[in-house]
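User: We ran a pulldown and think these components assemble together. Before we commit to crystallization trials, I'd like a predicted model of the whole complex to look at. Sequences follow.
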Amino acid sequence: MSALTFTLKYSPAQRVDLSPLVCDQLKELSLAEIAALELYCGKRKLRVDELFTLSGDDAQNIVIKNSNDKLDYIGKDLQNGTISVEGDAGAYLGMGLQGGTINVSGNVGIYAACEMKKGYLEISGNAGDLLGAALPGNKMGMKGGTILVKGNVGERAGDHMRRGNILIEGNAGDYCGSRMTAGTIAVMGQTGRFLGYAMRRGTLLLWNQPTLSASFNDCGTHTLAFLPMLFRSFKSLNSKFADSSVAFNRVRRFGGDMAEMGRGEVLVKI
Amino acid sequence: MIINGVSIDATFAEAFPMKATRAIITAQNEKWAMISAQAMTGFATSVIACGCEAGIERVLDPSETPDGRPGVSIMIFAMGAKGLAKQLETRAGQCVLTSPTSALFAGIDGGKRIPLGKNLRYFGDGFQIAKLINGKRYWRIPVMDGEFLTEATTGQVDAVGGGNFLVLAESQPQALAACEAAIEEMRKIPNVIMPFPGGVVRSGSKVGSKYKTLNASTNDAFCPTLKGMTKTDCSPEIESVMEIVIDGLTKEDIDRAMRVGIQAVCDLGAANGIKRISAGNYGGKLGPFHFHLQEIMA
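Assistant: Here's a predicted model for the assembly, 568 residues in total across the polymer chains.
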């Protein structure tokens, strides 16, 4: 069996909702039936084969080729299987992800992995704002699983995050970890302003000293036993995080946000 | 059956179903892991009065422990699941949480999950932090020497308790030397503990007593000083009897431990004053697990 491959024929004028094209919903369908599925493109509906050239038959292993930032909701509510995106992805990539794996070779738009529950998302490029966040009006963002971003992320990564890991090899924008309830966000690069704004609990793990607001208090330097275990859990990743030379267990600990519950922590490598 | 001049009785040890769990204690160095493990498995020789039977299974290399530090594996056995959970939690709270630099992890991944650090977290008074790493939940509890790291739960499994054999010797030093040799070999066997002091018990008991308030009393048949006063099991040359009790995760684990233990005793042989190997049982009516000495040594 070869991967079920969708090759984008042209860049659509409007945004396209790709949420029907997930492994669980396609596994019982023939190639012809998949080709006849309808996708929303702006206010119109298009057949899948109007947008894509189809090949392959393994619905558990989906490849989207020539992908661009007009393709939204890729892998929405995915439960199992793998989706590989060759190119960029639009907004809401992996929204509500419940299992399985999504790989993106390019950049992704806003709200990637928002309200994700389980599974693994790897982004080789940059991610937009609100990575792993809650949808507007909702109180719970990412609830589990792991997100790896090899590039930079936009603002409010992990907003309202509840559980899971967000690993960022590059830089994070402003308000990283804002309103976090729990979970771990690790940033190897630089972080922006208002780090951990209104975070209640959770861990922000940093390689570089951030600019912290006055509502984060210095708790001193420490050797923390859980850190080697956390780093060891990244060993299988295709990432700098898997490299034992980047791991550490000596940190300076800042507690906050004292303007909120104040049980969160910012751990900075020393 | 006679091995190296040591007579192996045609009898059997009788053992009972128990519930068991294993925990891994780590610390800055082996010394402190062992101190914590000894405290956690202290006063746990017999379920008769201790509530559980516990012991150190073995020392762990840093490469074998979850946090990469030196560690010790301990096992706890109890008659019921509820009692086991209570003993585990109170001992973890008083003996490991309190021990400098310690961390506590599950030693059994399968089985029913019972709390390890799940409730100890409340000691953190709201400052405790949960971390889910590789699907396992850990608690970081702030303490005065830094942080106490503990896994939330460990596994509880069905097990076997009360495997035993008796070493009958011509003198007390010879009985003890034989038991020490046996324990040294038996500690190399995984999944078993010998819960009595140093692994050896000198006060084996029988069921019942002339005193109504006691349900166990001295095993007078194997007390050498009573040879002329009771229905004895000691021949005239026997001056000392010691027992080794074994709890294990399975019957096969106890089989293996008994075999290497009895073999070590027999290796010393009659030349070192060891005359007989026997075992304690209740006529086969109480415990479903029977360990026939001659079958084990065949």
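The interface with chain A takes residues 66-69, 103, 126-127, 129-134, 138, 140, 146-147, 149 of chain B (CB under 8 Å). That may be worth checking against your pulldown data before setting up trials.

User: Thanks, that helps.
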